[in-house]
Amino acid sequence: VTRLRRASFASIVLPPRGWFERASFGGLVGLALILLGLARAEVGLVERVTHGVRDALTPVMTAVAEPAAALHDGFGWVGRQFALAEENARLRAQVAYLSEWRAEATRLQVENASLREVLHAQRRQPVPIERTAKVVADSRSPFVHTRLLDSGARDGVREGMAALGTGGLAGRVVDVSPHSARLLLLTDFNSRLPVLVLPSRDPAILSGDNGPMPLLDFMPLTPQVQAGDRVVTSGAAGLLPVGLPIGQVVRDDDGALRVRPALDWRDLRHVRLVQAPPTPAAFGAGWAADRGRVATPTGG
Amino acid sequence: MASNAPGFEQRLRGALPFLLALLVVLVDLAPRPAAGGGGLAPFLTLAVVYFWSVYRPDLMTYPAVFGVGLAYDVLSGQPLGGTALALLLGRGVLIARHRFFYAKSFSVIWALFLLWAPAVESVRYAAAASLAGALVDPRPLVVQCALTVALYPALSWLLVRLYGQVRVPAYAEP
Question: Looking at the DSSP assignment, which residues form a beta bridge with residue A207?
Fold first, then answer.
C-alpha cells in the first residue's frame, strides 16, 4: 500500500545541462534535416541502413503484432455478435445471387473454351500466385498509407508485385529488402495504377489521395463511365497482372469519379503477392525484336 | 567483478524509458485491421516521449528521442527523419521551459500536452507535406492528435506505476 501511494506521485527531475546537451541537440537536428533532405535522393547507404534496421525489427514486429491483433479481435468479436443475424441474412442473399453467377460463369467458360478452339487462340495464362506474406506493421499515419510485410527479396518478393487481399487489390510492393518489404496501398498519396473500367473498357489512372476512395484520373475525352461500374487493373506497361479486381466506381459529392475498393480492409492480415506474367509489354526489347522479325519476314 | 551486477541493473533501469518508448512505437504500428484502411489511432509514442521528457529528462535524452523517432520513421515508411526532427524540437521546447513544470498539478501538465502535441505533429506535417510537394489532407492529423490527448491520462497513469522501477537520478543516488 505504501509502495502504491509512493508510486502514484511522480517527481520531476532536473534536465541535464552542459555541452553534451547542446551538442547532441544541434548535431541530431542537423542529422534529421540531412536525412529528410536525402529522402528523395535514394542514397545507397541510407537505404542499406534503413533496410537493415527494418529487417532486424521485423521479427520483433511479428511478435508484437500477434497479441495486438488478438486484442483488437477480442473487441471486434463482442461487436460482431450483435450483427450476426443481420449478417446471416445478407450472406444467404449473397449465396443465392452468386450461385446464379456461378452457373453463368461455367456456361461462359465452356463457350469460351470452344470458341478458343475454333480460333486456335492460345489459352490465357492464369495469374501465377507467387507468394503469401504477412502484414506486420501499419503505417498508422495521416501521411502515408503503407504496410510492412514480413517477407523480402530472400523469399522471392520483387518490387512492383501486386498485393491482393480479401475482395481485391490492396496495392503494390514498392520497397524490398532481404527480409521485409513495403506495400504501398492504393489509397496512398503516391499510388498511381493503370486501370480499366468495365464494361466500357475505358482506360484510366487510379490515383490515391490518402482518402478512403482513390480518384479516377486521365479518362478518355468521352468516358462512358457510370457509378457502379467495375474497375480492374489494365496491365498497361506490364506493371500489374491484367484484370485484378479493384472496386466499384462511385461519384463523390463534388461530382468527381472515385473508386470504392472492394478490398476488405478488416481482413488485411495476409496478402497474396502476384507478378505480371511476362508479356510483350513487360519486355519492351523482346517485343521490338519480335516486331522486327514480323515486319521483315523475307529479310531473315 | 561483483560490482558489475548492480551496475548492469542500474543501466537497464536507466534505459527503461527509452526501451519503453521503443515498445510503444511497435504497439503504435501494430496492424489493426479492424480500424479499416485509413483507420486512425492515437500516436502513443508522442505521449510517452512527452511524459519522460517532462518527468525524467535525464533519461529521455536527445539521442534517445532521436532513436525513437527514427525507429518510428523506418518502420512506418514515412520520410526518414521527420518524426525524429519533430520529437527533437519537441523535447528542446520542453527543456527550455522545463522550470514551468515544477510543482504543477497533473491537469496543468495534461493541458500543456494539449498544446505541445499539435505543435510537434505540425512539424511532422510540414516535413511530410514539403516532401510530397502538396498539402495532404490535415483532418486525419487533427483526429489523431485529439485521440492522443484524450488517452494521455490513462497512459500517464500507467507510466506513473512504472516510475518507481526507473533508475533514481544521479544526484539522489545513495
Answer: A192, A215
pLDDT digits (tens, 9 = 90+) for A225-274: 888 888 998 877 776 888 888 999 998 888 888 999 988 887 788 898 98
Cβ distance of B85 and A209 shorter than 8 Å: no
How many Cβ atoms are within 10 Å of A153's Cβ, its own excluded? 15
Quick one: how far is CA A243 from the chain centroid?
Answer: 15
Among candidates A251, A233, A230, which has minimal Cα distance to A242? A233
Report the DSSP beta bridge partners of residue A251.
Answer: A257
CB B61 within 8 A of CB B85: no
Radius of gyration, alpha carbons of chain A: 25
Reported ipTM? 0.85
Q: In angstroms, what CA-CA distances link A248 with A191, A263, A272, B128?
A: 18, 11, 21, 30
* Number of other CB atoms surrounding residue A284 within 10 Å: 11
Residue B10 host element (H or E): helix B4-29
Distance from CA of A142 to the nearest CA of B (A): 5
Closest partner residue to B81 (CB to CB) among A36, A61, A138 is A36
Cell numbers given for B65? 528521442
Rg (CA), chain B: 17
Encode B65-89 in three state secondary structure: HHHHHHHHHHHHCCCCCHHHHHHHH
Q: Mean pLDDT, consecutive 10-residue segments, chain A of 300 residues?
A: 44 81 90 85 80 88 78 62 78 87 88 85 65 84 84 88 89 91 90 87 87 83 81 80 88 87 82 74 40 37
Q: Cis (ω within 30 of 0) for the bond into A199? A: yes
Burial B25-46 (b: 16+ CB within 10 A, else e): bbbbbbbbbbbebbebbbbbbb
Closest residue in B to A180 (Cα–Cα): B75
Report the chain A residue with the minimal C-alpha distance to residue B125.
Answer: A143
Handedness of CA B159, B161, B164, B166 (dihedral sign): negative
**Residue A58 in contact with residue A155, Cβ under 8 Å?**
no
